[in-house]
Amino acid sequence: MVEIVRVDIKKAGYIENEAVIENIEFDIPNGELVGLIGANGAGKSTTIQAIMKTAPFLEGECDVETYGYVPERPIIYEYFTLSEHIDFLIRTVKQDERVLRKRAEELCKVFRLEQKLHEYPTNFSKGMQQKVMLILALTPTYDFYILDEPFMGLDPQAIRKLIQLIEDYKNRGAAILMSTHALDTAEKICDQFVLIHKGTLLKKGTLEELQRHKDEPLLEIFDDLIEDADHGKL
Ligand SMILES: Nc1ncnc2c1ncn2[C@@H]1O[C@H](COP(=O)(O)OP(=O)(O)OP(=O)(O)O)[C@@H](O)[C@H]1O
């Protein structure tokens, strides 16, 4: 098992030599959840694309090969039922088929989709499609998971269940990177934070390391850091 996932991106973007993000460097220790925080357009998803080596322009590296991934927007195969999506995953992932099938079944139950196995996710609601993405990403056993805004569209029950799953995966030693705008949830469940602003790393650390006074909420920390950065104080 990898001890730690090291992210060291010099530059990344969508067009050759046009960097959207620069100098993003942080670690995701195993057994920890790292929150990737930033305003709309700050560069969170681009950072994730760079980690996965799918950014069209990329300088720098991240030493990960296999990982579970929840994309920013659901990626659904139009002509596959939920069950066929799971079959396809099982055929592509080189892990014990029985273990994968059992895990997929459990996750379908957790997210209450076990009655929908023979229906087409393309016709599912937004939250149900998000649950499909979670089931597919969390079925295989990996050392590393990347969750790009995983709470998007989920009902409160599903959010609670996902938080429990994240806890379970951390406890078995997985490193997890999660981008989110749900700062009140993030501050309760993340071990560390990486704050991104205008394509650069504004600050990283635990909540305690980022707080300037006791009990300062993450939103306030982040707002003030952005304010300082925009006024050249950082
Ligand atoms: N496929 C793409 N092609 C070109 N530019 C892109 C593409 N995706 C994102 N960008 C640009 O890169 C910048 C960073 O976007 P990114 O999606 O990384 O932000 P984000 O922090 O994930 O935002 P959000 O919170 O809105 O999801 C933005 O200026 C955006 O317009």
TrEMBL record:
Gene Ontology MF annotations: ATP binding; ATP hydrolysis activity
Record-annotated ABC transporter domain positions: 4-223
Keywords assigned: ATP-binding, Nucleotide-binding, Transport
Pfam families in the cross-refs: ABC_tran
Range of residues in the leader sequence: none
InterPro entries tied to this protein: AAA+_ATPase (IPR003593), ABC_transporter-like_ATP-bd (IPR003439), ABC_transporter-like_CS (IPR017871), ABC_Transporter_VariousFunc (IPR051782), P-loop_NTPase (IPR027417)
Source organism: Ureibacillus acetophenoni
Name of the featured protein: ABC-2 type transport system ATP-binding protein
